[in-house]
Design brief:
seven-stranded mixed sheet; 33% helix; 233 residues; disordered C terminus; 8 helices
Length: 233
């Protein structure tokens, strides 16, 4: 399946007309649970969809200012904007989420979006990046009965493994802090145990391994050059 360049207008029209439910509705709470120690006072959800993660962050982080942006926002919780040309000033956010977005982009557009996400991230801040793990794109490829064109049923164009995220972080000038594969369905059932479950080896293996759909999650830090200079002095 050939990669298609990101056409903002066509992409916006597609998502405005798409009535499918967003995965964020189910995954927002466990994602905030996993990212707890990386949350700052100013948070951006880039590619916020219908705003589930934005609302969850506002509930759990009452002292933080949380914003969401999406090309085709579904609710008033999310502003309209293009991730390849974010309107925010440099170093505006302590934490930036980009969840279940980059698999929809070409490699070239992914680098553009990553550059923008890092630009609006403050030095010392964290980017939380998620995507389906090791997705077999061909298994969800369908053909149009009229033109016989092949396309992924959810518009995914890339599949990622841990090494791909390490490379993305390096290209963007980020330092990976934590990376894990997660089965959200298992994590949701065990969150009542609190964050200690991530320290218990067999429970950690239970939510990170096994057959079935998994998601790759990386927390990566933007280096603080000024802090490094002060430390060296």
């Amino acid at each position: 399946m050939p990669a298609q360049r990101l056409d903002s207008i066509a992409n916006q029209r597609f998502w405005e007309s798409n009535q499918a439910s967003y995965q964020g509705e189910q995954n927002a709470r466990p994602l905030v649970f996993l990212a707890r120690k990386y949350l700052g006072r100013a948070i951006l959800d880039a590619g916020a969809g219908e705003g589930s993660l934005v609302r969850q962050l506002r509930r759990d982080c009452a002292q933080s200012e949380v914003q969401g942006v999406d090309l085709a926002p579904k609710t008033r919780d999310v502003d309209q904007g293009d991730l390849t040309q974010l309107v925010y000033q440099d170093a505006s956010f302590d934490t930036v989420f980009c969840s279940e977005v980059i698999e929809h982009l070409t490699p070239e557009d992914t680098l553009t979006v990553m550059s923008e996400l890092v630009r609006v991230l403050r030095p010392g801040g964290s980017l939380i990046l998620t995507t389906p793990f090791a997705e077999k794109l061909a298994e969800s490829t369908v053909a149009c009965p009229r033109c016989d064109c092949a396309f992924h049923r959810w518009g995914h164009q890339q599949s990622f493994m841990q090494g791909d995220f390490v490379q993305l972080a390096a290209q963007a000038g980020l330092v990976p802090e934590e990376m894990r594969t997660i089965r959200y369905s298992r994590l949701r059932r065990l969150m009542f145990l609190g964050h200690s479950l991530l320290k218990i080896p067999w429970l950690k293996r239970h939510i990170e391994r096994g057959s079935g759909k998994r998601h790759l999650i990386m927390a990566a830090r933007k280096p603080d050059a000024s802090a490094a200079v002060r430390s060296a002095a």
